[in-house]
UniProtKB/TrEMBL annotation:
The lineage of its organism: Eukaryota, Fungi, Dikarya, Basidiomycota, Agaricomycotina. Ca(2+) binds at D592, I593, G611, D613. Binds 1 Ca(2+) ion per subunit. GO terms for cellular component: extracellular region. The active site is at E296 (charge relay system), D300 (charge relay system), S549 (charge relay system). Its main location: secreted. GO terms for molecular function: metal ion binding; serine-type endopeptidase activity; tripeptidyl-peptidase activity. This is Subtilisin-like protein. One of its GO terms (biological process) is proteolysis.
Length: 634
């Protein structure tokens, strides 16, 4: 896979050692060190200046799952009573006691109060200081690791975080203060785009033939999807509704491609465009035009827009042309409370703004610039192992907060089955480093799909020579539906019965060497939709594309249409749907997918089966039934 994000900072990392014993999340304890093991290269030079960012412990995170359930579980008396952003921010903000405990520790250690800066959200305290000072005052030692030529990480350990402070600290991140730092390319395997097909087809394989309902096994069009999933809702209140698609610069769409697509499949939309929201200097660049640059944006927007017309689609174009952006960047933009100055984001994963590089977005980062859209789809993912546990957790809690505010967050589950991006698998024992596909190798789950507070969408197909009226299978053409079990996140309550049922009734032929088979970890995907033979207009031609990028847009469109119907009847949006879709009472709203599997790592992967499975989740929606059920809820 091509590298999506070029990272330009010689930065990074966080302190684990001293903090590892206090974290009160199961997964923290298990993985309190950087998940990517790197050989120590050298001690950090003493003349370097660094900034230490101390992430303060938020309140009430332990109860976040229950809090989210209280507004998302249909049996809860508070169902649908979503919280305001202000209430969410206040409920979770670090307490004053936390702020003052950490401040007084730092001042006692010898820092001048002027050196400390508290972020607006009270989430972080930052100290700009020098290497000798942190060594002296905090007994912190920092090493520089060179991961690949030009890619450096700083990691530090402190033996001096006192017990009474540890409970107030979530994570510590150290960044190099980079003046005239050389441009460094970020390593290959962090955040990679979910490809819209796993085996790239030549640019512009042209669709020959006339797509119609009669040949949906060969050409998947909006018309086929409407038939497959009984999508038949005419938006009544499009202007009161919202649906956003996230793209990361330099990924872009071409207006001419949208028009070509609309001319075939949605004639009323010609010349329509998404509403652009530029996050951290995000631009729809037109300089480079190819399937690599436009394949994702074209696909996402063509299907999102066609299926919910005339409801407007918002494009959250994230990151400037120099650094790009990461998941935290779009989250900052929709929730100001997630945003912090200088260091809320992980420079190893996200763009850090202002970006003073030539051509960079030299402005404060986009922080709370729009209200959270009611449905957000993201066709990008990263291998879970490339995120530190602290980073993944913090981001995952943010998704829970957005769910609490009534937003449905949908991520594609990945296109490589049980393997990670590019087909990479993990080394058996360490679970840390990827090895090439072959026999063996630990399965490589995808993040944020493994976050229990998002909805992960897998891919299905109409079987070759079958009709649109027959049952689908898991997608096995070019792409294989991402699915499996997290190495970080514990199992959320809502999927316990379904996942345990699968493991018991259809025990996969693998051991704990391949995946965490304890029945105690988050499993994905949650549901699925078609991702095979998708007809897209791309770089001037109609072509085919494959994968969960398409699927996630289909589910996003369906949830948006259901929101419209609810809004038109004076009800709220559906928000976080997972607690609902796993309930037996809702199973009739899904076509259970029972055939196909998601190969990878030299194995056939998991197999779809009756009930939930780690290939297609609970199945594909019947919108008519789902709408009816959701309209009955308050
Ligand atoms: C570190 O900061 C000090 C004080 O601001 C400054 O004099 C020095 O030049 C900085 N060193 C580097 C390498 O940037
Ligand atoms: C990065 O990608 C290039 C080209 O695909 C490859 O040659 C190189 O080995 C990769 N580096 C790492 C660290 O994976
Ligand atoms: C376009 O491609 C060229 C050559 O690969 C590259 O140098 C340039 O940065 C790209 N521009 C954008 C906007 O991505
Ligand atoms: C589908 O039908 C074509 C033409 O009859 C045939 O050649 C092909 O083998 C069939 N494919 C499958 C998977 O049955
Ligand atoms: C699997 O997950 C459980 C629950 O989080 C954990 O206790 C166990 O150690 C994990 N197993 C492995 C092999 O990581
Ligand atoms: C794709 O479109 C371009 C311009 O619209 C055209 O020149 C090219 O021949 C097309 N590709 C194929 C494979 O037909
Ligand atoms: C969806 O459910 C409705 C109502 O039960 C049914 O009439 C329709 O045939 C179903 N759609 C599909 C594609 O199965």
């Amino acid at each position: 896979m091509r590298l999506l994000f070029l990272r330009v900072l010689a930065i990074v990392s966080w302190v684990a050692g001293a903090l590892s014993h206090r974290a009160n999340h199961v997964a923290h304890r298990r993985h309190a060190v950087e998940s990517v093991t790197l050989a120590r290269a050298r001690r950090l030079e003493a003349h370097r200046n660094i900034t230490i960012h101390i992430g303060l412990k938020q309140q009430h995170l332990d109860g976040i799952e229950e809090t989210l359930m209280s507004v998302s579980h249909p049996d809860s008396p508070m169902y649908g009573q979503h919280w305001s952003p202000a209430k969410v921010a206040k409920h979770f903000a670090p307490s004053d006691a936390t702020v003052s405990a950490v401040e007084s520790w730092l001042i006692k250690a010898g820092f001048h109060p002027d050196q400390l800066r508290l972020s607006r959200s009270k989430g972080w305290i930052s100290i700009r200081t020098s290497v000798p000072d942190i060594g002296f005052l905090l007994k912190m030692e920092c090493d520089v690791h060179t991961h690949s030529p030009g890619h450096e990480r700083i990691s530090c350990e402190s033996s001096l975080v006192p017990e009474e402070v540890r409970e107030h600290v979530d994570l510590i991140r150290v960044t190099h203060v980079h003046k005239d730092a050389p441009l460094l390319k970020y390593s290959n395997h962090t955040q990679s785009k979910t490809p819209s097909f796993s085996k790239p087809l030549p640019d512009g394989i042209v669709v020959h033939g006339v797509p119609s309902l009669a040949n949906c096994d060969k050409f998947t069009t909006p018309q086929c999807l409407r038939q497959l999933y009984s999508i038949d809702i005419k938006p009544e209140v499009p202007q009161r509704n919202s649906f956003a698609v996230v793209e990361f610069t330099p990924q872009a769409y071409l207006g001419s491609d949208l028009d070509l697509f609309f001319s075939h499949f949605s004639t009323s939309q010609e010349k329509k465009r998404p509403v652009l929201v530029s996050i951290d200097g995000g631009v729809v660049q037109q300089q480079n035009q190819s399937s690599t640059y436009d394949g994702e944006g074209d696909l996402d927007l063509e299907y999102a827009m066609a299926l919910i017309d005339p409801t407007p689609v918002t494009l959250l174009q994230t990151g400037d042309l120099v650094q790009g952006g990461g998941f935290d960047n779009w989250l900052d933009a929709v929730d100001g409370s997630f945003c912090t100055f200088e260091g809320g984001d992980d420079p190893n994963q996200d763009g850090v703004y202002p970006d003073t590089q030539p051509g960079g977005f030299d402005h404060p980062e986009s922080c709370g610039i729009i209200a959270p859209p009611k449905v957000v789809t993201v066709s990008y993912d990263q291998d879970e192992f490339t995120a530190t546990v602290a980073y993944a957790m913090r981001q995952c809690y943010e998704y829970a907060k957005l769910g609490l505010m009534g937003t449905t967050i949908l991520y594609s589950s990945g296109d490589y089955g049980v393997a990670g991006n590019g087909g990479a698998c993990l080394q058996d024992k360490s679970r840390c480093r990827p090895i090439n596909v072959g026999k063996g190798g630990r399965f490589n789950p995808s993040f944020p799909a493994t976050c229990p507070y998002i909805t992960a969408v897998g891919a299905t197909q109409i079987n070759p020579n079958s009709t649109v009226y027959e049952p689908e299978s898991a997608c096995e053409q070019f792409a294989h539906s991402g699915g499996g079990f997290s190495n970080i996140f514990p199992m959320p309550f809502y999927q316990e019965a379904a996942v345990k049922g699968y493991l018991k009734n259809h025990p996969p032929p693998y051991t704990a060497e391949q995946y965490n088979n304890s029945g105690m970890v988050r499993a994905y995907p949650d549901l699925s939709a078609n991702g095979a033979n998708i007809v897209v207009a791309r770089n001037g031609n109609l072509s085919f594309t494959y994968g969960t990028s398409a699927s996630v847009q289909v589910i996003g469109a369906i949830m948006t249409l259901i929101n419209d119907a609810r809004l038109a009847r004076g009800k709220g949006t559906v928000g976080f749907i997972n607690p609902l879709i796993y309930l037996p009472a809702y199973s009739s709203a899904f076509h259970d997918i029972t055939t196909g599997s998601n190969q990878g790592c030299g194995t056939p992967g998991f197999t779809a089966a009756k009930g939930w499975d780690p290939v297609t989740g609970v199945g594909t929606p019947n919108t008519t039934v789902l709408l009816d059920m959701l309209l009955r809820l308050p």
